[in-house]
From TrEMBL:
InterPro entries: Cellulose_Degrad_GH3, GH, Glyco_hydro_3_C_sf, Glyco_hydro_3_N_sf
Native organism: Raoultella terrigena
Any GO BP: glucan catabolic process
UniProt name for this protein: Beta-N-acetylglucosaminidase/beta-glucosidase
EC number in record: 3.2.1.21
Catalytic class of the enzyme: hydrolase
SUPFAM superfamilies with a match to the protein in the record: (Trans)glycosidases, Beta-D-glucan exohydrolase, C-terminal domain
């Protein structure tokens, strides 16, 4: 977290730091920079003001807390077959191919396709922390399809 001060001064308002040791290091670095007066508190105030302004414009204070909303805690409804079918339809309708040379799309089931790379079957590289649970730690591979097995279906 050594570049924390430089990143804040460069205009970063929100840091998504996960592991306890990392956010504790981040916090210490940030506080040291403010206390040493190498990072003006006015810059922190500016970042906080912008973050809160966006949240206010989004109506976050007008709605009940997430834990009090109608579907709170009902994760079993997420990823049900109807939702997955709708998600697949959205993907099919929103995929962009810049040039369909030789009419490659739609892909034939008989076509051999190389799916390669470290993310081919790694769900964390596909969705990272933006998943059903914080950092996806409560999910398992059966919750999602990565490019590799999805090509097999």
């Amino acid at each position: 977290m050594g570049d924390c001060e430089a990143a804040v001064l460069a205009g970063i308002d929100i840091f998504m730091v996960t592991a306890r040791k990392d956010w504790m290091s981040f916090r210490t670095s940030l506080l040291d920079s403010v206390n040493n007066k190498t990072l003006p508190i006015s810059r922190i105030d500016d970042a906080v003001s912008r973050i809160l302004r966006v949240k206010m414009r989004a109506g976050m204070w007008d709605k009940p807390m997430p834990s009090q909303r109608i579907l709170a805690g009902k994760q079993r409804i997420l990823g049900n077959p109807d939702h997955r079918a709708l998600a697949r339809e959205a993907v099919r309708k929103s995929l962009v191919l810049l040039k369909n040379k030789n009419n490659i799309l739609p892909l034939s089931r008989d076509l051999n396709v190389l799916v390669a790379g470290s993310a081919a079957n790694d769900i964390s590289k596909q969705i990272g922390g933006w998943s059903l649970t914080w950092q996806g730690t409560e999910n398992n591979l059966s919750d999602f399809l990565t490019p590799l097995p999805s090509r097999r279906h």
